[in-house]
Automatic annotation (TrEMBL):
Residues in HD domain copies: 101-242
Protein name: HD domain-containing protein
Coiled-coil region list: none
GO cellular component: nucleus
InterPro entries (UniProt xref): dGTPase-like, HD/PDEase_dom, HD_domain
Annotated GO biological process: defense response to virus; dGTP catabolic process; regulation of innate immune response
GO molecular function: dGTPase activity
Protein family (similarity comment): Belongs to the SAMHD1 family.
PROSITE patterns: HD (PS51831)
Lineage, highest ranks first: Eukaryota, Metazoa, Chordata, Craniata, Vertebrata
Superkingdom of the source species: Eukaryota
Matching Pfam families: HD
Length: 517
């Protein structure tokens, strides 16, 4: 009477009159990514089988997921994440960075449940329910549903915030696969809990009244810090991607998230319940933000990766309007508008790169040539970079030199250049994120403490990189000489913030004359 071992979730009922209580567990290995755990509980005359999938994850080992999470995973909307690279263009630089949003999302869902369960067992007075834990798991699992092709590359081009897309895609997923009755089967109330789940994804701290019989206000603001924590950046999303990215990039990760799970407690800070950790974990938490900065410096903001992603973005912009994706009601959408219709967006993945590359349509020629240059490694050449000082304005009295290139000699034009502004920090711009954390001591686990301030004062840095689209040696050398001349004759200090970006660009345009943004 055992269920089909290849099915994701199944239930079997049959009568057994000779036993009153029976607990059975069995492991059945299946072909593919996961195994199936079968738990059997006999109550009265009915034996009820439920299966829990166990995934073999390279970061977390064998992880068991709730049947409702498996129902969500086994949908086209979630399976789409298999075809979206976690690190976008980094795969063109680091051959090991082949992992996708799919496995990261499963890892975040798992860790979200682990942290919620740890708090629940450690502090019963918090009254964390099974319902709360399941909602937190779903939020972790679905937090990246809104990512487009090459992850953050698409976000920067066509989507203000992927979290908004994640909530829209979650609504679409639940509706298209009729999962609200399944949610009810496992004790959730869709009309309330879907709102709660989306609030955790979007990091909305203003929680709502639960529409249940007791009508109590959620006094669990700390639950909003588990998946996406805007207060200080310490969340399970970061725990998973730092560990996973480090593994596939071959970069050592010094942060141990297991210790955070071991020591996490909820304390009250300024009238609000927040997640804290032991004071002895301060160095470990600095390691969290240090490895984030290190990965940005060595991989995410790698100069070859950034120029390749810039070229992909150029190709997508040129192809926009010529790529049609069918959405709901037979309506057609482009690359830039597909995120407005979740049926169309479900079909949009990294595969659009191959679609453009292999197309023979004349209207896609410009975009196709750019992508052909990428796969042929004919990428824009690095000219030079400058690290601005931390002074927030142009120094008074400095006049900008305007050296003019000999255009007849080198044939360089403004459109032959690209300037990329690179920002790297510890997650909170120029602030120390650990100072926004709270700790507790061994003597008093209920009283929160702030971190010590004996640390470096610099938590952000910025680079301005100049690239030449012409890749012949003569043009690149001419561009580099002009860039060096510019730096010698017109040294000036500035800070590239959003407000001052135009000032920075004016400086470069005047100094180098022929470079455009």
């Amino acid at each position: 009477p055992f269920p089909n071992s290849h099915s994701s979730v199944c239930s079997v009922y049959f009568s057994v009159r000779s036993f009153s209580i029976l607990n059975i567990s069995a492991w059945i290995l299946t072909s593919g990514f996961y195994a199936v755990w079968i738990g059997c509980i006999l109550s009265g005359n009915e034996l009820y089988f439920t299966t829990h999938n166990v995934f073999n994850d390279p970061i977390h080992g064998s992880i068991e997921l709730h049947p409702l999470l498996i129902k969500i995973i086994d949908t086209p909307q979630f399976q789409r994440l298999r075809f979206i690279k976690q690190l976008g263009g980094v795969y063109f630089v680091y051959p090991g960075a082949s992992h996708n949003r799919f496995e990261h999302s499963i890892g975040v869902g798992y860790l979200a449940g682990k942290l919620a369960e740890a708090l629940r067992s450690r502090q019963p007075e918090l009254n964390i329910t099974e319902r709360d834990v399941l909602c937190v798991q779903i939020a972790g699992l679905c937090h990246d549903l809104g990512h487009g092709p090459f992850s953050h590359l698409y976000d920067g081009l066509f989507l203000p915030k992927h979290e908004n897309g994640s909530c829209d895609m979650l609504d679409h997923l639940l509706k298209e696969n009729n999962l609200e009755p399944v949610m009810e089967k496992y004790g959730l109330k869709p009309e309330d809990d879907i709102i709660f789940i989306k609030e955790m994804i979007e990091t909305l701290y203003e929680y709502k009244i639960r529409e249940d019989k007791t009508l109590f206000i959620l006094q669990r603001s700390f639950l909003y810090e588990i998946v996406s924590n805007k207060r200080n950046g310490v969340d399970v999303d970061k725990f998973d991607y730092l560990a996973r990215d480090s593994l596939y990039l071959g970069i050592k990760n010094t942060f141990d998230f297991h210790r955070f799970l071991q020591f996490a407690r909820v304390c009250e800070v300024d009238g609000r319940k927040t997640i804290c950790t032991r004071d002895i974990e301060e160095d470990n938490m600095y390691d969290l933000f240090y490895i984030r900065h290190r990965l940005h410096k060595r991989a995410y903001q790698h100069r070859v990766n950034k120029v390749i992603e810039h070229m992909i973005a150029e190709a997508f912009l040129k192809a926009d309007g010529h790529i049609e994706i069918e959405g709901s009601g037979g309506r057609m959408f482009t690359l830039s508008t597909a995120n407005e219709d979740m049926e169309a967006y479900t079909k949009l993945t990294d595969n659009v790169f191959e679609e453009i590359l292999k197309s023979s349509r004349p209207e896609l020629q410009e975009a196709r040539e750019i992508l052909q240059n990428i796969v042929s490694r004919k990428i824009y050449k690095f000219v030079g970079e400058r690290k601005p000082s931390r002074i927030g304005k142009l120094l008074a009295g400095k006049k900008l030199a305007q050296p003019l290139p000999d255009e007849e000699e080198n044939n360089l034009k403004p459109e032959d250049f690209e300037i990329l502004v690179i920002n790297m920090d510890y997650g909170m711009k120029d602030k120390n994120p650990v100072e926004h954390m709270h700790f507790y001591s061994k003597k008093d686990c209920c009283q929160s403490l702030q971190a010590s301030r004996i640390r470096t004062e610099i938590f952000s840095e910025q680079l301005i990189r100049v690239f030449c689209k012409k890749i012949d040696e003569q043009s690149v050398e001419a561009a580099r000489q002009q860039f060096e001349q510019c730096l010698r004759v017109s040294y000036v200090s500035f800070q590239c913030t959003k407000k001052k970006i135009s000032t920075c660009l004016n400086f470069l345009q005047q100094s180098i004359h022929f470079i455009k943004w």
